[in-house]
Automatic annotation (TrEMBL), chain A:
This is ATP synthase subunit a. It comes from Marinomonas phaeophyticola. Keywords: ATP synthesis, Cell membrane, CF(0), Hydrogen ion transport, Ion transport, Membrane, Transmembrane, Transmembrane helix, Transport. Its main location: membrane. InterPro entries: ATP_syn_F0_a_bact/chloroplast, ATP_synth_F0_asu, ATP_synth_F0_asu_AS, F0_ATP_A_sf.
UniProtKB/TrEMBL annotation, chain B:
NCBIfam families: ATP_synt_b, PRK05759.1-2, PRK05759.1-4. It holds the Pfam family ATP-synt_B. Keywords: ATP synthesis, Cell membrane, CF(0), Coiled coil, Hydrogen ion transport, Ion transport, Membrane, Transmembrane, Transmembrane helix, Transport. The lineage of its organism: Bacteria, Pseudomonadati, Pseudomonadota, Gammaproteobacteria, Oceanospirillales. The keyword Nucleus does not apply. F(1)F(0) ATP synthase produces ATP from ADP in the presence of a proton or sodium gradient. F-type ATPases consist of two structural domains, F(1) containing the extramembraneous catalytic core and F(0) containing the membrane proton channel, linked together by a central stalk and a peripheral stalk. During catalysis, ATP synthesis in the catalytic domain of F(1) is coupled via a rotary mechanism of the central stalk subunits to proton translocation. Component of the F(0) channel, it forms part of the peripheral stalk, linking F(1) to F(0). The b'-subunit is a diverged and duplicated form of b found in plants and photosynthetic bacteria. It comes from Marinomonas phaeophyticola. F-type ATPases have 2 components, F(1) - the catalytic core - and F(0) - the membrane proton channel. F(1) has five subunits: alpha(3), beta(3), gamma(1), delta(1), epsilon(1). F(0) has three main subunits: a(1), b(2) and c(10-14). The alpha and beta chains form an alternating ring which encloses part of the gamma chain. F(1) is attached to F(0) by a central stalk formed by the gamma and epsilon chains, while a peripheral stalk is formed by the delta and b chains. F-type ATPases have 2 components, F(1) - the catalytic core - and F(0) - the membrane proton channel. F(1) has five subunits: alpha(3), beta(3), gamma(1), delta(1), epsilon(1). F(0) has four main subunits: a(1), b(2) and c(10-14). The alpha and beta chains form an alternating ring which encloses part of the gamma chain. F(1) is attached to F(0) by a central stalk formed by the gamma and epsilon chains, while a peripheral stalk is formed by the delta and b chains. It comes from the Bacteria. Residues 30-96 form a coiled coil. InterPro entries: ATP_synth_B-like_membr_sf, ATP_synth_b/b'su_bac/chlpt, ATP_synth_F0_bsu_bac, ATP_synthase_B_chain. Belongs to the ATPase B chain family. This is ATP synthase subunit b.
Length: 273, 156
């Protein structure tokens, strides 16, 4: 905790501060104490909590699915295999519905996005003070447990998807085809600058909207949990329980939307106009 | 809200996760799913085939049963016919045999009668001579006569 008896705004700010590791202005490396120090570190810093939780959850996801995949057989499925097959079939169905090309990457990509984002979002359901308080006991000053409330995480994924969009656009249509798509429509070759502006905005909007949608939803949800946590402890349940139940929907929905939009964008990248 | 290296860290870990998923998670699960759906399809087809086979076999069995029934009836009829025939034959044979036996017996009887007649004929003269002798030789008395006649008759 930043101080013994934090005010409401201090409490909120404390909860919204990542555990940032970077170079202090004086040249030494270390963990930022407070938002101002973290901001001074600039771009060359890293959020240890975001990285740690997201990687741990990603490893959890892969370990779980890998252990089921190793034992996968065509007989009657049981236990974890059932669940994994359900997820795989669900994602496979969504991909096949939307994406009609042939690609080995898109379906596993969609599965990874769905499950990983879902797990990261689910961290939101853990009471907001629980893990930070534990970390505080161990001497870790700041901790944000929901990686998807860190814009770096959502933007990181969105830019990866963006890179794939560009890669597939060029792979399928060629450099000329891709540039043509950006410049020669919707108004023909006499309006190239205008077309480029329109299509460029459309293209850039894809990753940005993808990242901001997920970030915004989860950040808002987290913020409301934090606000509820400010209330006296004996009324918290009356608000936090309904919000958490509603949030279950948001968590799954946002993971699903991120996955679906990725599939849609990539299938658009595969389509010739 | 600072953008920093976490962005790249996330992108890199995302890429690694996707790669791992693509390489080690997706193919085995999908392979198992496809194999299972193939198995199920095969099973359904086999079940269809089996029920068709069963139907066919039942039909065949009914057919065979009907045929054998008809055959059995035919055999029984033939057997009855044959039995009747045998009985008729036996009757006829018995009749002819009886006829033959009777004829033979009759012939034998006739022969015997003839023989007896012959023997009688040969003895009658002797008797007559003996009788006459006795009649002539003895005193004629009624009692003696009747005795004599009775004796004669007994000698016949």
């Amino acid at each position: 905790m930043a101080s013994e008896n934090p005010t409401a705004s201090e409490y909120i700010q404390h909860h919204l501060q990542n555990l940032t590791f970077g170079q202090h202005p004086d040249g030494s490396w270390g963990i930022a104490h407070g938002a101002a120090e973290a901001a001074e570190m600039g771009f060359w810093a890293i959020h240890l909590d975001t990285m740690g939780f997201s990687i741990a959850l990603g490893v959890l996801f892969l370990w779980l699915f890998r252990s089921a995949a190793k034992k996968a057989h065509a007989g009657v499925p049981t236990g974890i295999q059932n669940f994994v097959e359900l997820m795989v079939e669900f994602v496979d169905g969504s991909v096949k519905e939307t994406f009609h090309g042939k690609s080995k990457v898109i379906a596993p990509l969609a599965l990874t996005i769905f499950v990983w984002v879902f797990l990261m979002n689910t961290m939101d359901l853990i009471p907001v003070d629980f893990l930070p308080a534990l970390a505080g006991l161990m001497g870790i000053e700041y901790m944000k447990v929901v990686p998807t409330t860190d814009m770096n995480a959502t933007l990181g994924m969105a830019f990866s998807v963006f890179a794939l969009i560009i890669y597939y656009s060029i792979k399928v249509k060629g450099v000329g085809g891709f540039i043509g798509e950006l410049t020669l429509q919707p108004f023909g070759k006499w309006m190239i600058p205008f077309n480029l502006l329109l299509e460029g905005v459309g293209l850039i909007a894809k990753p940005i909207s993808l990242a901001l949608r997920l970030f915004g939803n989860l950040y808002a949800g987290e913020l409301i949990f934090i606000l509820i946590a400010i209330l006296p402890f004996w009324v918290q349940w009356a608000l936090s329980v309904p919000w958490a139940i509603f949030h279950i929907l948001v968590i799954v929905l946002q993971a699903f939307i991120f996955m679906m939009l990725t599939i849609v964008y990539l299938s658009m990248a595969h389509e010739e106009h | 809200m600072n953008l920093n290296l976490t962005l790249f860290g996330q992108a890199i870990s995302f890429a690694i996760f996707v790669w791992f998923c693509m390489k080690y998670v997706w193919p085995p699960v999908i392979a198992a799913l496809e194999e299972r759906s193939k198995k199920i399809a095969d099973g359904l087809e086999a079940a269809n085939r089996a029920s068709r086979d069963l139907e066919l076999a039942q039909e065949q069995a009914t057919q065979a049963l009907k045929e054998s029934k008809a055959q059995a009836a035919e055999i029984i009829e033939q057997a009855n016919k044959r039995a009747n025939q045998i009985i008729d034959e036996a009757k006829e044979q018995a009749l002819t045999e009886g006829q033959r036996l009777r004829t033979a017996a009759q012939a034998e009887i006739e022969q015997d009668v003839m023989r007896a007649k012959e023997a009688l004929r040969s003895q009658v003269s002797l008797l007559a001579v003996t009788g006459a002798e006795k009649i002539l030789g003895a005193i004629v008395d009624e009692k003696a006569h009747s005795e004599l006649v009775e004796k004669l008759a007994a000698e016949l």
